[in-house]
Write a structure and sequence with these properties.
Blueprint (H helix, E strand, L loop, with lengths): L1 E7 L9 H7 L3 H12 L14 E3 L6 E4 L5 E3 L13 H13 L6 H7 L5 H13 L12 E11 L16 E12 L2 E10 L4 H11 L5 E5 L11 E5 L6 H4 L1 H18 L7 H13 L4 H9 L10 E7 L2
Parallel strand pairs: 5-8, 8-9
Antiparallel strand pairs: 1-2, 1-10, 2-3, 3-4, 5-6, 6-7
Helix pairs in contact: 3-10, 4-5
Bound molecules: zinc ion.
The site of zinc ion (ZN) has 8 residues, from loops.
């Protein structure tokens, strides 16, 4: 058994590059140490009795036993890695790729990048990580928000990967979107699959996505009229002007479509909302990839990690 103690002073900085990440999380114990630091930034605290003395068990991986009450706590408890047979390094790598790859990453790419033996394993990893992106951020958009709607083609089971334009049998899906604008820059976004472009659908989307008193900018589509509690600025547009009046939501839609084609060879109808959530998750965290990484692995919700270094020294 080993005694656990904590010494402050190291840089708890999150790796910025792939190379740095690879070096820092090269081993199981390096990953476990990170989990320990995120869970107990000021040293081990027993979730059972609140005391701080514990031993690292030799018989169970990365599990601590409280010296006072005997309760055993794993560093992976409460994360998506818990009870998984996969090494922590694989989870860490997969989450890093998912969080930082600006175009996202498919199960097939994950399999080859991580040299995983089976596609099933890669698919499971991707699915679990993607599930962590669903309903990622429920704080409504506020301030100035652009909203619009678009049509996305999806590929059905029997369609070829490359679908000729206008091909019959290719499905279309309606998507509503909103982007929060901060000065001249976009901040967060929302995307939702909707059943129609009518008032009920678009009102429901907007009222769920934005805070009261938001300054909403839309085109002149009548379904956006009479939104209760929202300051609305409808702009009458010629057919070519939408990308000028609503630049950010249009850029978001075109990035979404390009992403869907590039990463998944065309989005599928099944789970489209999950793909939208993935796209939005990455968009909303494009400047805070550390937070994205932690969220994906289900690691704590504390704001910033305190840079402590954990030293595990062997007991006599
Ligand atoms: Zn205890």
């Amino acid at each position: 058994m080993s005694r656990v103690s904590v010494v402050s002073g190291s840089e708890g900085r999150f790796p910025k590059s792939l190379l740095e990440f690879q070096r820092r999380f090269a081993t199981e114990s390096a990953c476990a140490e990170y989990l320990f630091e995120r869970r107990w930034p000021e040293g081990f605290v027993c979730p059972g009795c609140g005391e701080g003395r514990a031993w690292l068990l030799k018989t169970k991986a990365f599990t601590y036993e409280c010296a006072d009450c005997g309760r055993q706590t794993s560093v992976t408890a409460g994360t998506i890695m818990h009870a998984s047979k996969l090494p922590l390094t694989i989870w860490f790598w997969a989450a890093f790729l998912m969080a930082t790859h600006s175009n996202g990453i498919s199960a097939l790419q994950l399999q080859s990048q991580l040299s995983l033996g089976s596609y099933q394993t890669a698919w499971m990893l991707a699915a679990k990580l993607r599930r962590a992106m669903v309903n990622p951020e429920r704080e409504p958009l506020s301030g100035v928000v652009e909203a619009d709607e678009t049509i996305i083609r999806f590929r059905t089971k029997n369609d070829p990967v490359v679908v000729p334009a206008g091909r019959s049998g290719v499905g279309k899906m309606l998507v509503a979107g909103a982007v929060e604008i901060d000065g001249s820059k976009p901040r967060r976004a929302r995307l939702k699959v909707i059943e129609g472009f009518g008032k009920p659908e678009l009102h429901a989307f907007v009222l769920d996505a934005v805070a009261p008193q938001t300054q909403l900018i839309t085109d002149d589509w009548p379904s956006y009229r009479d939104l209760p509690g929202v300051r609305h600025n409808a702009i009458t547009l010629g057919p070519m002007a939408a990308h000028i009046a609503l630049p950010w939501i249009h850029r978001l839609f075109s990035n979404l479509k390009r992403w869907g084609l590039g990463v998944y060879h065309g989005l599928r109808k099944t789970n489209l909302q999950h793909y939208l959530d993935e796209f939005v998750f990455r968009f909303n965290r494009r400047r805070t990839r550390h937070a994205a990484f932690d969220t994906l692995l289900g690691i704590g919700t504390r704001t910033t990690p305190i840079p402590y270094r954990v030293l595990i020294r062997k007991a006599a």
